[in-house]
Design brief:
alpha/beta, Rossmann fold, eight-stranded mixed β-sheet, five-stranded parallel β-sheet, 10 helices, 18 strands, globular
Length: 349
């Protein structure tokens, strides 16, 4: 394990991405950009590379060659610059080595125990693996924490439960053959093929409500403190309030299948926008201290119309978890100004 104490793993170098693996480091390399995305002009090449003796470090945090060279632009170093100085390469943890015979497919991304990271970053890698011809395999590699939504969607793909290997942070898993796909799109962007492929996995059902409010009532953090007031104001407008965590993935997909307008606090449930028809509107509600553009980019890739609204902080970041409130009158105003520039198609950045 190239360490004074063999169970304290440390990398022996890093390469920028799968594209930078030499012929000596790989068994096979497939460029499936055209087959998967329908275009061969993408700067983000969709590659699948097989490694002899490849390794997965911990709970899918890193992937490495048999010589402990970390592969960049995937897993926890996806889209990261200055790879050599990244904290994931410096962390030392007691990890026991495990060797597995056969062929293992790296499906889960880092943080794939989160619904958004699973549905948008991880599951679409299956299309890359299949396009590259990897239909005969022994293991599919997953995050160590079991999640119902993972098992349900793997059932959709026909992955046998006996072939699902959950990788714990306490181990370094090495495989006779490790098959590694790139991420489905470049960091801080999204791709139209991802939403189209996800929609293809679920039978089209257009009987759900056209107006939906996705609640975070069951979430541990970022609570909207005036949600009851907001829900009461939205109900006469035809909105149906839903708690997504109480539904299966298929139920969530069918629910969003007919949605024309969605209002929701920022959270993982917005990954279900991938199932909404093109042209749907999204109004995303933000805590002012917790903002990013992942769902703006997803909306743009899926052909949705997007707007956002910042709430007012009820407490601060150091309080353990965030709480905030939104101006209900402002929410209603944005929703009634459909013909204005409040909602528009945004280009992913």
């Amino acid at each position: 394990m190239s360490s004074a104490f063999p169970f304290l793993w440390q990398p022996q170098g890093a390469i920028e991405s799968l594209e930078n693996l030499s012929a000596e480091q790989r068994l096979r390399r497939s460029d499936v950009t055209l087959a998967v995305s329908g275009s061969d002009s993408s700067a983000h090449r969709l590659l699948v590379v097989a490694l002899a003796g490849g390794k997965v470090i911990g709970d899918l945090r890193l992937a490495a060659t048999r010589d402990d060279v970390v592969i960049g632009d995937i897993q926890s170093v996806f889209g990261r610059e200055a790879l050599a100085g990244h904290h994931a390469l410096k962390r030392r943890r007691l990890r026991l080595p495990k060797y597995h015979r056969g062929t293992a497919l790296l499906l889960g991304a880092a943080n794939s125990d989160n619904y958004y990271h699973w549905l948008v970053y991880s599951l679409p890698r299956w299309k890359l693996l299949q396009a590259a011809g990897w239909r005969d395999y022994d293991l599919v590699l997953l995050h160590g924490r079991p999640c119902r939504f993972q098992d349900e969607t793997l059932d959709w793909l026909g992955v046998p439960a006996a072939k699902r290997l959950r990788c714990s942070k306490h181990f370094i898993h090495q495989f006779e053959r490790l098959v590694v796909p790139t991420m489905p799109f470049a960091r801080r962007t999204n791709s139209a093929w991802v939403g189209a492929w996800l929609r293809s996995l679920v039978a089209a059902v257009n009987t759900g409500p056209e107006k939906i409010y996705l609640s975070r009532r069951g979430a541990a953090g970022r609570q909207l403190t005036n949600e009851e007031e907001l829900a009461a104001a939205l109900k006469p407008q035809g909105f149906v309030m839903v708690q997504p965590e109480k539904l299966s993935v298929a139920e969530q997909a069918r629910l969003l299948g007919a949605a024309r307008c969605v209002v929701a606090p920022h959270g993982a449930a917005l990954a279900n926008l991938a199932f909404a028809p093109p042209g749907a509107r999204l109004l995303e509600l933000f805590h002012p201290e917790h903002k990013n553009r992942v769902y703006e980019n997803l909306a743009a890739a899926c052909g949705h119309r997007y707007a956002s609204l910042d709430g007012s902080a009820v407490n601060r970041t150091g309080a353990g978890y965030l709480q905030y409130a939104v101006e209900v009158t402002t929410v209603l105003r944005k929703l009634t100004e459909e013909s204005s520039s409040e909602f528009r198609n945004w280009k992913p950045s």
